[in-house]
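Quick one: structure tokens for this chain, please?
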Amino acid sequence: MAPGWLLRKVSSRQFILIGAIAVGLWAGLTAVLLKVTVHYLQEWLVSLSYSNNWIFVVSPALGIGATYLFVKLVLKGDLARGTSQVLFAIAKKSSFLSRKEIFSHAVTSALTVGMGGSAGLESPIVQTGSAIGSTFASIFPVGYRVRTLLLACGAAAGIATAFNAPIAGVLFAIEVLLVDISASAFIPLLIAGATGALCSKIILAEGILFSFKHAQKFNYHNVPYYVVLGIVCGLISVFYVKSYLAVERIFHVSFRSNLTRLLAGSMLLGGLILLMPALFGEGYASIKLLATLSPDKIFGGSVLQNFFLQSPWILGAAIFLIGITKSFAVSLTLNSGGNGGNFAPALLVGACVGFSFAFLINTTSITTLPAANFCLVAMAGTLTGIFHAPLTGIFLIAEITGGYDLIIPLMIVAAISVSISRYLSPKSLDEEKLSQSDGTLTFSKEAHVLSEFSAKNFVEKDFAPVHIESNLRGLTDAVAHSKRNVFPVVNDRGSLHGVINLEDVREMMFDTSLYDSILVKQLMQKPVEVITVEDDMNIIMEKFDKSGVWNLPVLDEHGKYLGFISKSRILSNYRERLRS
């Protein structure tokens, strides 16, 4: 009764604004709690590792193992990982997310990342915020569009809180989650993002926030180097996506049980971290060391520290190697049973690539490039290339650097990187993962509208079926009692054998001498295409285009005739959906 009373007291627009504040506050406080927990847990582990290098090997395995047990015992094995699952819920589940996702991703990612798992918190934060928005909306009798908007508000607040970057949070929700966006959605998203950022600003300490104050002024003489950096970032982004998915495929083929995946992944991850401690956890500490021009410190605790630091060339190459290896470390973490995301790893990859690019060029004495700037700009480049979200990457770096001094190189590198990434790999990482589980989902606005339709809702059953053993007289009788021009031919079991078009038999129908001599089976034609009720609407439209007809028969999973689907009816509903 209370939800209904509230909706009667306020307008729809007022309700959305109230919901944006409530969801933003809820998601923001949850993200703050998660960030603080992981920060102090990692600090404690790092302090232990100074005298015990084996901590780097053991603690990630313990975190992944604890996550595995929590998922198995508490969640009963049900944990849908990744931002791609939010996209799936929007497209296929009317934006409904399970209420247990409000806490499941926060707990599992805290165990995984807090204990040193090589992944980020932002994807779990997005899933948690989205679940909060969906849950809040489900309390009230609201429709799909309002529920989707509040879901996106939760995601925007989560990203805004994680980075104290409200604009980046809003742009992330628009670029990644909301395929179909209208101008009216901006204000609720801005309110939710601002609310989340306030939680971050008021509660989180400076050491926990991811911010930089060391960026130098932009020098236009360095534009050619930024262009080359954009190309490198685009190529590295494609490599990240391909290598991440390759490890995932290898794991599922090579290891049949979850336990063997956990053991193998944890051991390999521990070995990588022992060689390159920068792979431990999210990687923000390493990013800060690079941006503050202290690259030697990111190898502290490595068994190969002396080798990596013996010359500038080896140091630069080693930092680049960290960026290359991060995708493998993340995939090992997640596919062995941990929970986390690729947002923070994408930033670490960019930081390593940008710093090593400038550092190695500076070593040649050809010119002197601002390594900190290239580090920050490349972060936007790789984030853009991996997620295909250029505005998010540009404004995230602009916000965490406290100004727009680097906006021009950010735009150059992001534009080039995403162009190369889309050319070589048309789908982002989330889209690739989602297409593996449901290849029918698409991400353009037009195709997304079609994906919301169900074939079952378009079946028309007012076509007069004709028995296959009937003659022309029986067909004529069916024509007399039908307003349709197409007639399905069926047997006793209701199976479809063919179709008859009125235009093909019109002349025969006026020759009564043929009524008993010509059989229906002589007049029917095999349908050029048939539709099943499980077909995706994009596949159905392809069948219409291929066949060139305007009505196609529909069969159930057993081949039994159900009715016809009209192309004109689909197009009419499609146009109406776009107008709404």
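The longest strand covers residues 496-501.
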